Amino acid sequence: MLKKSKLLSAAIFSAATLLAANGQADTMGTPKISAMSIVNGLENPWDMAFTKNGDMFFTEKCKGFSVKTKSGKINKLYGMKGTSGYNSAGDDLFCEGQAGMLGIAVDPNFKKNRRIYVASASTKHHGSGCKDNFDVCNGNIIMRFEVSKDMKSVSNRTDIVNDIQYKPFESDHPFGGPGAHNGNRLRFGPEGYLWATTGDRHKGDIPQHPTLLGGNVLRIDTDGKAHPGNKPPKGFDKRMYTYGHRNVQGIDFRPSDGRAFTAEHGPWHNDEITALVNGGNAGWDPKPNVAGRGNCPDKYCGYMPNQKEGMLPAARAEAGTPMSDERFKDLMPPAWNNNGLSQGTGSAAFLKGSQWGYWEGRLAVGIMGIAFGGTPSGMRIDVIDITKDGKAIKSVIQMPTGLTKRFRGLRLGPDGALYATVDEGEIYKITARK
Amino acid sequence: MRNFVNLFTFALFLVLSNVAVSGDVGEGEKRYAVNCGNCHGPGGMGLASYPKISGKEVSYLIDRLNTYRSGKKIGPNSDLMIMMAKPLTDVEIDNLAAYLATDPAAKR
């Protein structure tokens, strides 16, 4: 099945590439793609969120969040510690390593309640819990704001989740700096609840931990309380929809059935797209002294074995810590594993609208490109056709954007275009036409 | 005699200065394109948690690359740079330093 799907995807990819290159009409319904930079000069733009009118909120990891109004004007709304030019700021908000101001979402009832939601690293709720990397350290939060009618300011900040884990210090790992693995993508689901992704923050016991919020997908209301239908295992925090993740930075909902799918970074092997199951386990467990492993540096086995050298991804996956450990009975198997590679799969958005041709309903996946240990960089957007049961794929096509960028965030706009933040400091609008 | 000493000193200065910037900028750009830009971005502009290296002094860049190549840690993500710097030759390090010292990110 997999071999057949690989052959099929290769054939379709070749056809799509040729058609895009020649700009000719085709009979298959392959959309013509064009990409245009709509904002530049930014510093690490991370995520975007739209009102139904087309106003675009966006975050910059070490600066704050702004809005590009429908008229095209950019208003800098809320900054982080040490920034300038923002209408207001939070002195507790900071960036470090991979952490900072990341995900953003607009309330489905924005027109009425003017609310938006932003995830960031913060010192406000640390308490005395960040003494070392093995301490609790609640350093990632989700804030709710109200936006003024003139779109120039925000007010009434309320921290609706203040106990998501943060890595405070360096550890003995590749990518071992503080601030690692925060997740922090925010999206509203079709039922109107807020979904938030979190990361394992290089703490071995977190992903399978019943109460520490890390390595999870949370499903909460707009006050931060658990969705009453969440079904985590007995004794687990009720805000968890799923657990056992590594670092989820992409989540979206399939238009045909509303099912949630995540895009997740792999540990030098196996990026994953996963169909979520309420209460399910993604199968990441980097604890030492389990599953045949011994001790690991700083009690985290996420890069083992041979963590300081290049190694064939398949061999590392076989000998080290699997992304989806089959010893868990509640495992959610991935639909796609990037052919066993880890290239920074960091965002996902389903394509909606007939302008996308036969890609309509497929998942666009942003890949940043990480080239260690012989892995090809692979900066790109893939378009993935996922089976109805969510357990496999039918094909993968590389979207012919003409761009080689670190695709950090993807979001479908209200106009049906795909928007992308890239680490190079820009936001692109990617349009399709038949 | 004094003139000769001054002339010799000046010539020596020129030679040593030339050593410091002896890398080939074009070759450095080619080597940078192989895999450095995946993390540090176009022209060494710095991306995400990977620092800006465009416009740094030649001596600083050579020292850093030599240090990483020797396997010594000098920062939280050193393991990644050690892995990348290990295969570099002296000439490649000189070339990379020469290229990045021209501040290519500013010319984008």
How would you portray this structure in words?
The complex is a heterodimer of chains A (434) and B (108). The radius of gyration of chain A is 21 Å and the shape is globular. In chain A, strand 3 and strand 4 form a beta hairpin. Chain A has one domain: Neuraminidase, CATH 2.120.10. Chain A is mainly beta and 434 residues long. Chain A is 7% helix and 32% strand. Chain A is built from three helices and 25 strands. The longest helix of chain A is centred in the first third of the chain and has 21 residues. In chain A, the strands form six sheets. Chain A has a five-stranded mixed beta sheet, with no helix packed on it. Chain B has 108 residues and is an all-alpha fold. Chain B has a single domain, classed as Cytochrome c-like domain (Cytochrome Bc1 Complex, Chain D, domain 2, Orthogonal Bundle). In chain B, helix 2 packs across helix 6, helix 4 packs across helix 5 and helix 4 packs antiparallel against helix 6. The longest helix of chain B has 19 residues. The radius of gyration of chain B is 16 Å and the shape is globular. In chain B, 34% of the residues are buried. About 8% of the residues of chain B have low confidence. The interface between A and B is medium-sized, with 29 and 16 residues.
